[in-house]
Amino acid sequence: MEKNTQFKVGMGASKGDEARKAGKEAAEEALKDLQAKPDVVLLFATAHYNHLGGFKELLKGVWEVLPKGTLLLGGEVSGFMTKKGVYAKGVTALTLAYPNMNVAYGIGENIKRNPKKAAKKCAAMIKRKLKHTYGNKIVFTFVSPTTTMNIPGIEDFSNIKSKLLADIMLPMTSIAQKVFQKGFGTDQEIVEDFSYYLPDFGLINIATMDGLTLGTNYQFLNKKVVKETVIALAIETDIPFSLDYSSSATELPDKTFKITDITKDGRIVKTINNKPAFKELQRIMNWTEEEELHDDRWLITSFKYPFSYKKNGKTKLRCIGMILGDYLGFLNKVENTNITMAATSRGKMVESVDEVLTIDQPLFGFFSSCVVRQGFLGIKAFDVQEKLKNYFRDKPFLVLYSGGESIKKPNEQLEYLNFAFTSAIFEDNKTHSTII
């Protein structure tokens, strides 16, 4: 059965300095590469284009060349990688065309205000459109994560030294979420709830974000630019795929402790070993104010050394994202109070990519890589690209840098990750039969 010869992927990219022109260039290249009418287009752009004409202009450029009625989804990312380049600034368009494929999409709004309602609505839209023709099922989710709050008099919201101000701000975080849809994200809760409604689907998630400031988190749906939403693309097909992830940190067995007070949402650690959390962690790690915790480098320190713990027998990592007086803030939930500190390195980040490249005949690869990896890798990102180029040979792949990676195999539990490299690799297997 030569079915897979009809599976087509087109990739395009632009680093242009004008949003509309860059959008058009990326779409034109993707359509030329596809050489078919696309069933769906995935579009991703860095935050630069919000200031180089705006994302609405970017979409206008894309729609100058896209066929009318094409389904388009995507959003803002910190960067991306293809076989043609590694981009910290740019826009990329991915086009797909295949006769043995059903697609459906959903959207849920106001996710910080009511995450459960948004997840349920998004999943319900998809379920109404599914045809249940093919047995291989995967969904791509694009979710708004944490966004920083602009508070007069606070220059750096991620590093608040005043204990009094930190205590005042704790109850404000909930108000900011519900009223202004700012502050800590609900992306973890969204994806967990959403996946409950589609248990037989695999899932890979992209947290749409401005990786430089966490100030914006825009998504694209057809001709609209939206924010604070969950958007999902579901695909049913006869092509098999593999979902996997790898970590890039090693536990430090001599750096263990117990969280003794944490907020209900699992994002603010108040005490460690019954002592103020920040000071106790500083003691355990031997961090000094002059070196590791200096204002302009403390995030480098905290991201290099994540919390590590066990959940359902698997190791999870969580990045420290904030210092709030004596407290430690996390962008995602810390789900165990028994913690071992871990450390990462650029070498480990490059090596860990090999762990997900297990399909013998890859047809196409879609990856989500932690934005922290992007920041640490630097020029080593080209080593990752070289690995992927050697593995895929003439086949296409796309790596998106985002925050809060999620992966879920069909009929298994969702894994919400930090520091991870997650993969959805479609297999070039021409003898399969999965029509149901």
Structure description:
The longest helix has 18 residues, at 163-180. Residues 431-436 have low confidence and may be disordered. The protein is α+β, with helices and mostly antiparallel strands and 436 residues long. The two termini are 17 Å apart. Strands 9, 15, 16, 17, 18, 19, 20, 21 and 22 form a 9-stranded mixed β-sheet that branches. The chain is 25% helix and 36% strand.
What's this, in brief?
The protein has 436 residues and is α+β, with helices and mostly antiparallel strands.
Q: What level of helicity do the residues show?
A: 25-40%
Radius of gyration, rounded? 21 Å
Give the rounded overall mean pLDDT.
89
Task: Kindly report how far apart the N and C termini lie.
Answer: 17 Å
Q: How many individual β-strands?
A: 27
Morphology call: globular
Number of DSSP helical runs: 10
Structural class: alpha+beta
Strand content: 35-45%
Low-pLDDT ranges: 431-436
Q: Could you describe the largest sheet, including whether it forms a barrel?
A: 9 strands, mixed
